[in-house]
Amino acid sequence: MKLRTLFAGIGLAGSLLSCSGGSGVVSSAKEPVDYVNPYMGNISHLLVPTYPTVQLPNSMMRIFPARSGYTASRLNGLPLIVTNHRRISSFTVTPFLGNEEKPVRELNYDRERITPYRYQVYLEDDAIEVDYAPSHQSAVYTFTFEKNGTPNLLFKCGRGELMAEDNTISGYQQLNDKTKVYIYAEIDVTPEKHEVSKSSLLITIPENTQRVSMRYGISYISEEQAGKNLRKEISGYNTDAVAKAGRNAWNEALNKIKIEGGTEDDKVVFYTSLYRSYERPVNLSEDGHYFSAYDGKIHADEGRPFYTDDWIWDTYRAAHPLRVLINREAENDIIRSYLLMAEEKGTNWMPTFPEVTGDAHCMNSNHAVASVIDAYNKGLRGFDLEKAYLACKEAIEGKSLIPWVEIPAGELDDFYKEHGFFPALKPGEKETVSTVHSWEKRQPIAVTLGTSYDHWCLSLIARALGKTEDADLFLRRSYNYRNVFNPETGFFHPKDKEGAFIEGVDYRYSGGLGAREYYDENNGYIYRWDVQHNIGDLVSLIGGDKAFTDALDQMFNEPLGKSKWEFYATLPDHTGNVGQYSMANEPCLHIPYLYNYAGQPWKTQKWIRTLLNQWFRNDLMGIPGDEDGGGMSAFVVFSQMGFYPVTPGSPAYNIGSPVFSHVKMDLGNHTYFEVVANNASPENKYIQSATLNGKELNQAWFSHDEIKDGGLLVVEMGPKANKDWGKNAPPPSEN
Fold it and tell me: Checking CA distances to 730, which of 148, 156, 250, 464 falls within 20 to 30 Å?
């Protein structure tokens, strides 16, 4: 039996078991949520894996098992609330039997079963069945004790305090200087006693009680609000009822895109990827108010949800454009939330990594500007474009471009504005700017290319507002990538402060750990293509269509040049390799589609299918690298459907190779965009011909306007490439 099949059985069978189990929740026919395998990618190729998150779509309440990794044999208690993405649970509860005090921390477990809306596990040592189901801001646990004895519930938090009175538990966890998360819980039996030790609370239940249920709410406002959140969502202790409501919520969300055809594994990969696209950001509004970590205050939400926890560097590329299509109202509210953050922070800087605890300001560039103009150019009007322009402009012009720091613009920024590139240090040259992050370095090529794109996005916003002078200025700056293009090598090449190319650069390995001294996480082969807004000009810089496609071919075929352990010791994010191409990191997502711009769309079709099949699979290692809260998963959703937004900000989509014979996407207001791929199969991956809305289509792209009110793309698929289809009509770019 292949490992792929075995792992799929573990994950999906577990999902189906947890749906049934006598609860009456599932019918015999599969619904979209039945295809979700939360275990997909739970073992990482190298860095951070996925987590089997239990959560309703974009909801504040979320958990995943409290263990060090998928293969860990013990749990560190049972989770009550994960605040920011990937963080450990802020509170845990540990059920156990016994009269003696014992510092229970680790639990041997078995029979774990997870769906997006339910978590079930068996605690071996004390023979306890655990059943959990979440709502949006509350949840319910049921503990069934198979053995006689004295049941206990041990609650833990870190930097906080826990209290108890009768059958209620309350407390808080201090997340940072400004942010607390509060909990209010009720259990359905009267305890014999409580023992409180500030951040630890032991509750003893009457002897031989066989079943204990606990319902609880969480809040970022107050303990009182946590209680209100509980009472408005969960009235009893019925885990089945809460799970059924959660199941319905997930089916409603996942049914935004219906698919036919493909294999069973294809469907699992698709709906699991769509599920992960709903993990973040999370809705923080509580009864018309929200807590903002940006000023430490509680605000009225004015009837619109406030969202946070979104790593924009990762998600602007595909997750935001996907939401523009299937959840426009939420995308409007998300962008509006960014503007509120900028205002509340006091600096009017758009966030880059907005979290529950504030803006983490990770990575490089300021790509919220891309999400703003992408939404606007696709018809969204639920935010103030003038405010967005001012905040985006201040983030790019007034805040420093130095990666991973949040300070006003300084000497390196002045250099960039004067010379049009971020300067690199020569090998062995010591850093002279004290504000440069000691680990993350300057990342000069990543900063120059990313800021060029950001300036292009900013120029589009300025033009939409009639700010012609600003638009022209920022459009000129959007060409700054040319300043670091080396015509002799055809790569983007770091320059020193005198404007000379750094000597001895190897585009595979140079730049230190993660290539951060020159690039960022990926090597020069990946950043060669990081000109999303002006791929037509990039084709010209590299030497025309043939030179461009030859360079793409070379990337896919260029060996690592070192042993794997040496290569990954230098570039640990650069996994999922096909030659020098890395499927595992977000700057790589658009690259397979670039053949469309240089007369070889058939190679885009070939590579999209190849990469999907190689790296996104229904198994425990089925994701090639970090899945940063929907960023990579949205790429899979788009690519399996057959199209992709290469340039957020440009209202156009590149066509790839549809996996399914029929896709129906709900655009809202009773309008649908459908993709019909006749004869699509693993072998039939090449487009032979196409029509869009009944008219012949001989180009590998279409505009948003052509589908915004509904549309139908029909492609005829075959086993051999039609090398003439779409070759003379490249997708739009600035040049």
Answer: 464
Q: Cβ distance 47 to 626 under 8 Å?
A: yes
Res. 86 pLDDT band, cuts 50 70 90: confident
Helical (H) or strand (E) element with 108: strand 107-115
Q: Which residues pair with 402 in a beta bridge?
A: none
Q: Name 131's bridge partners.
A: 120, 142
Do residues 140 and 133 touch, judged by C-beta distance below 8 A?
yes
Residue 7 token pair:
């792992």
Give SS3 for 46.
coil
The pair of structure tokens assigned to 470 is: 């600003």
Q: Are 475 and 456 contacting, i.e. CB atoms less than 8 angstroms apart?
A: yes
The structure tokens listed for 377 are 């150019």
Query: Count of CB atoms within 10 A of residue 382's CB?
Result: 15
Per-residue tokens: 280: 């973040």
Q: pLDDT tens digits, residue range 162-189?
A: 999 999 999 999 999 999 999 999 999 9
Instruction: Enumerate residues 6+ apart whose C-beta is below 8 A from 52.
Output: 38, 39, 42, 64, 65, 114
Average pLDDT on 598-617 reads 98
Q: What percent of the chain has pLDDT over 70?
A: 95
And the tokens for 77? 């208690």
Rounded CA separation 248/256 (Å): 13
Instruction: Write out pLDDT tens, residues 399-443.
Output: 999 999 999 999 999 999 999 999 999 999 999 999 999 999 999
- From the list 334, 243, 206, the residue with the least C-alpha distance to 23 is 243
Helices (H), ranges, 213-263: 223-233, 239-254
Quick one: which H or E segment has residue 675? Answer: strand 671-678
pLDDT at res. 29 = 86
Helices in 380-482 by DSSP H: which ranges? 385-393, 411-419, 444-464, 468-477
Structure tokens at 541: 């810089």
Q: Which domains, from first to last, does the chain contain?
A: 49-254 (2.70.98.10), 257-718 (1.20.1610.10)
Whether the predicted model's global pTM rises above the 0.85 cut: yes
Give the tokens for residue 330: 């939420």
The rounded distance, in Å, linking the Cα atoms of 680 and 647 is: 26
Query: Contact 221/229 with Cβ under 8 angstroms?
Result: no
Dig out the tokens for 186 from the structure: 């009720």
Residue 480 pLDDT exceeds 60: yes
Is the model's pLDDT at 73 over the cut of 80? yes
> pLDDT tens digits for 446-456?
999 999 999 99
Nearest by Cα to 375 from 315, 294, 452: 315
According to the model, what pLDDT value does residue 24 have? 38
Q: Report the pLDDT averaged over residues 621-643.
A: 95
CB 196 within 8 A of CB 162: yes
Backbone φ and ψ of 157, nearest 5°: -140, 170
